[in-house]
Every structure is written in C-alpha cells, then in structure tokens.
Amino acid sequence: MNGQFRCPGTGVFYLVPFISLLLTIVGPSRMSSAIEPSKNLIPETLIYWAGITGTLQSVTSPDYAIIVEKSSQHLLLYKIHDDFSLHRRFACSTGKVKGPKLLSGDQKTPEGIYFFTQEHPEKYLSPTYGNRAFTTDYPNLLDRMNGKTGHSIWLHGTDKPLRNWDSNGCVVISNEDIDALSPFITLNRTPFIIVEDISFLPASTAARTVAGIRRLIENWTAAIEKGSVAAYLACYQKEHKPSLSWWPRWHRVRNNFRSSETPFSLSMENISVFKHRAGFVVLFDQILKVRDISMKVGFKKIYVTEYRKSYRIIGETYQSLAYKKTLKTTSHPLVGVGYYLIRKLTTEHKQSAEMKSCKIPLKRDRSS
Q1: With contact defined as beta carbons under 8 Å apart, do 132 and 178 qualify?
Q2: Distance between CA atoms of 242 and 54, rounded to whole angstroms?
Q3: Cβ-based neighbour number of residue 20 at 10 Å
C-alpha cells in the first residue's frame, strides 16, 4: 500500500506516519480491519509474530495467523513473509449472545489467543458442522485461571446459509471458505485469535514492549539452565507461583551434565508474542542442547502480564510436545528429555569404549 490507505467513501489518502504519531499520543486505535499492516503500523495482537516487529527480518517460509473480529463478523487470515499482509478475508458468524464467553451454555464466543488441536473431516461430522471442523484449546490455562467454563469451541463449516451472530459460541464460516482456509492451518501452531475489534499500533511501540518481555523470558530460561530456584521464582508474579515438584529432578539432570563436564544449554527458537487486552502470550520452541545433540522439548506457551513497568509470568504450559516417549518416567517434558539425552550419551560412551578396547584381527588377503 506504499504507506497509504484510502478512507472509504471519501477518496482522501492519509499517510501512515501521521497515524503512527497520532497513535503514539492516544494509544492503539480501533480502525477498520480493511487497513493492512505495514512497517509502521501493525495489528496490536500480532505484536511480535515469528520474529518480526517493525524492523522486518527475513522469514524463510510463509507463516499464518487467524484473527476473528466479532464486531465486523469477519475472519482475517494474515500472512508473514518478510512483512505482514492481509492474505484473505472471510465472512463468519459468532455467538448469538454478544460479549466474551464466561460460562458453559451462554452462547457467547470466547475472546483470547487459541490454537487448533484437531481436525475433523466431513465423514466424522453431523451436517451442522459442514465440510470440516477444527477443535480449539478453549478453555486454555488463562481461561481456567479466570474461572471461565465451557468446551467444544470449534471453527467449522455449516449446512445452512451463513448469518451474523448465529452460532452457539463456535466460529462458523461457509463450507467453501473452510476448505479454502484449511491448508493454512497447522495444528497446535497457527494462532487463532478472537477479539471484539482489531486495534493497530506503531511498530516502535511494539518493539519497546517486546524488548521487556524478551528480557523476562531470557532471564527465565537462564534460571532454568544454570540458576537457582529463587532466580526462577523471581520471574513470576507472587500470586501465581509455579509448582516446583519437577525442580529436584531437573537439578539432578544439570548436576549430571556438570559432573561429567558435558556442555549443555537451554534455548528458544521461533519466538512470537501475541497480545490480548492487558496480557501477552509468548510462544517458542524450547531446545535442550547437550554437546552437539539438539532436541526440541516442545512448543512452550507462557502467559505474561505487565507488573510495575516490567513484566511477570502468570502461567505456563506446553502447547505441544516433541518427544512424548520421554515422558514415560517423568511428568515434566524438560526432565524427560534431559534423562533421555543422559542415557543416549552414556550408551554412546560405552559403545565407543568397547570399540577402542576390541582388537579386531585383520582379514587375510586371500589373493596373496
């Protein structure tokens, strides 16, 4: 759009830099969702998506996020590949009763940041759900912490004409559109964000916020890798202290690596930060590296809130796990992967020692 957009019905163009200045003064603006994001102005909820915020970086392959704007009854598919763009727009229908979902059976559509957990093809569905359906993780950890109830909030097709505000809480689109949208959805990976109105904010504002959140998550990771329980707990809001039942076993894993002088590190890859109201959701692949072996523990999801001009964690979970087999002997994924790597390295060390101690006779050359 070259830094401009057209005000509908006026033929007048406004410059995005002016909007950025205005938003800096008055805060995020609820603008028409017809405005596409730019280097200067981005959807507030996509504050740091796949490593891009304002200062655009290279992304090797396209990534997608879905935002449902309840006020306009539109589902928007955003694409990121070197920059943001509005890839597709679909008409949708949300709950018959307006407002965010609170209770089971209230016929409201929840608002927040969700992920798809399963896909159901038409042959397994009743006609009501159309050609296909995607289940979501509502209620997520934050919903449960806030006492919200209910279940079975899906994105699905329909066997009847689409009407605004006509569902029992699900997000409904036409059969043609659900089929068109399906290829862009990756289970437990594609964010499904539901809001009343889409707000936009200057990328510079997003960058400052993200810097503070990243410091928090980096401190949290460092505390787990080599820090103390006190340093770990300092990353959390006092009212939301986490369980430490797994820490003693993880401490033994760390000590095992240290005593054997085995280098190890804990890191984050593919970091994204999404915003909803006053809270943030941080997503990343958690990687445990031991020597030259890197293993993905899982896709980590951390809930963050602003606290005294800083940030604190109020909840955490794994959206998905990379190696479920490692959980047979432990309830915590990181501990499980740690013990798996210890066993793997021990086996490799024994095999190497046995090979060195073996005297393998040379084969006689029969041609001589």
Answers
A1: yes
A2: 33
A3: 18
Which segments of 126-200 does DSSP mark as H helices, in order? 141-145, 175-181
Set out the domains of the chain in order of their start, with CATH numbers: 58-197 (2.40.440.10), 202-352 (3.10.450.50)
Task: Select from 66, 117, 107, 71 the least CA-distant residue to 90.
Answer: 66
Q: What are the backbone angles phi and psi of residue 328, rounded to the nearest 5°?
A: -65, -30
Contact between 129 and 120 under an 8 Å Cβ cutoff? The reply is yes
The whole-number pLDDT of residue 203 equals 74
Higher pLDDT pick, 49 / 307: 307
Is it the case that residue 68 has pLDDT exceeding 60?
A: yes
**Do 156 and 133 meet the contact criterion of CB atoms below 8 Å apart?**
yes
Q: Are strands 171-172 and 154-156 parallel, antiparallel or unpaired?
A: parallel
Exposure string of 198-215, with b = 16+ CB inside 10 Å and e = fewer, is: bbbbbbebbeebbeebbe
Mean pLDDT of 331-338: 90
pTM for this entry: 0.81
Do 145 and 98 meet the contact criterion of CB atoms below 8 Å apart?
Answer: no
First to last CA, the chain: 80
Residue 41's pLDDT is 76
Indicate if the pLDDT at residue 1 is higher than 50: no
Q: Which residue has the tokens 């809270």?
A: 279
SS3 266: strand
Instruction: Tell me how crowded residue 286 is: count the other CB atoms within 10 A of its CB.
Output: 21
For residue 201, what are the contacts with CB-CB under 8 A and spacing of at least 6?
Answer: 23, 27, 28, 29, 41, 42, 44, 47
Residue 358, SS3 per DSSP: coil
d(CA 95, CA 93): 7
Tell me the per-residue pLDDT of 293-329, one tens digit each, with 9 for 90 and over: 999 999 999 999 999 889 999 999 999 988 766 555 5
Question: Which amino acid does the sequence have at 247?
Answer: W
Q: What is the pLDDT of residues 180-228, one digit of tens each?
A: 999 999 999 999 999 999 998 887 778 888 899 999 999 999 999 999 9
Cβ neighbourhood burial of 194 (10 Å; 0-12, 13-18, 19+): buried
Report yes or no: 264 and 257 within 8 Å, Cβ to Cβ.
yes
